[in-house]
Amino acid sequence: MDSQYITKATIDDGVNYQINHPKFSARITELGGQLISFTPTGKADLLWLSDSCPVDGSRPIRGGAPICWPWFGPASGLYAGEPQHGYARTVNWTLERFEESEHAVELVLSPNLPKTLADSLGLSLQMRYVFTDNIEIELITRNTSKTPQKLSQAIHTYFAVDDIDDSQIIDLNNVSYIDKLSHDKKTTQNGPVKITKHADRIYLTAQDKVTLLNSNRKLDIVGVGHDSIVIWNPWQKNAQQMIDFDNDGYKNMVCIEMANTQALVLQANDCHSLKQKIIPISL
């Protein structure tokens, strides 16, 4: 690879694209095309990664920014019994092209879906990363069939926090959400989101920004092309029951996901872009 900043290498028994740039370092795994680390120069990693999950390609990776596509949550209908959150995080991805400068690095990847599967789905996918001193992730889905196709998806980002007890998510006051832990009960958010127990919520909003506050860190999380914002933390009991999740990992992470969960349909030949931008704000 003829690149100044990008190296393809085997790290921890998995194939990775390692990016070392004056502004940041980042790591993308071939499995899932998944960003698992992004560290602005002189700062801490913005993303959380479980130490209990292998990153050698043997299973989907718990942490970073997994891609849920072409469905979010359990499979249903014709695909009942297929992988939770779809295929994107379970297959290897190919780096199609990249551009780099002293200011930014851009990469475009695509999943290596078997042709029979891609034909059955009637959808194609590309992912675009743009790294500067912040992160932009874009999922570009095209309906390659001659009929409308349903699509649900999420950029399932695990954010690192120093202490979940000292963290809050603002900008969702008065937004309705579905509580997946209370039989899909619909509730309205009152004040900042503070995680004090197992949380699995789908906020029904296409607003463009939320902010994560924790100790001396502030992150703006900006979305385009979504109809929902998902927030998840497994808390202690569930963390201990997952073999790929550190027992105390729930204390140092929260998932905030720009998502499409409300019956998005792509017409024939239509294209849809889902973006999530992560902007560290100095305090």
Walk me through what this model shows:
With 283 residues, the protein is mainly β. It has a single domain, classed as Beta-galactosidase, Chain A, domain 5. Helices cover 5% and strands 48% of the residues. The strands form three sheets. Strands 6-7-8-9-19-16-15-11 form an eight-stranded antiparallel sheet. A hairpin with a 3-residue loop joins strand 8 and strand 9. The N and C termini lie far apart (38 Å). The model has no long low-confidence stretch (mean pLDDT 95).
Helix content: under 10%
Mean pLDDT: 95
Order of SSEs, N→C? Answer: EEEEEEEHEEEEEEEEEEHEE
Number of domains: 1
Strand content: over 45%
Q: What's the architecture in CATH terms?
A: Distorted Sandwich
Main sheet: strands, sense, barrel? 8 strands, antiparallel
What is the CATH topology classification name?
Answer: Beta-galactosidase, Chain A, domain 5
Structural class, by secondary structure, is mainly beta
| Count of beta strands | 19
**Strand adjacency order, main sheet:** 6-7-8-9-19-16-15-11
For the record, what CATH class applies? Mainly Beta
**What Rg is obtained from the alpha carbons, in whole angstroms?**
18 Å
Shape: globular
Total helical segments: 2
Task: Give the end-to-end Cα distance, rounded to a whole number of Å.
Answer: 38 Å
List low-confidence stretches.
Answer: none
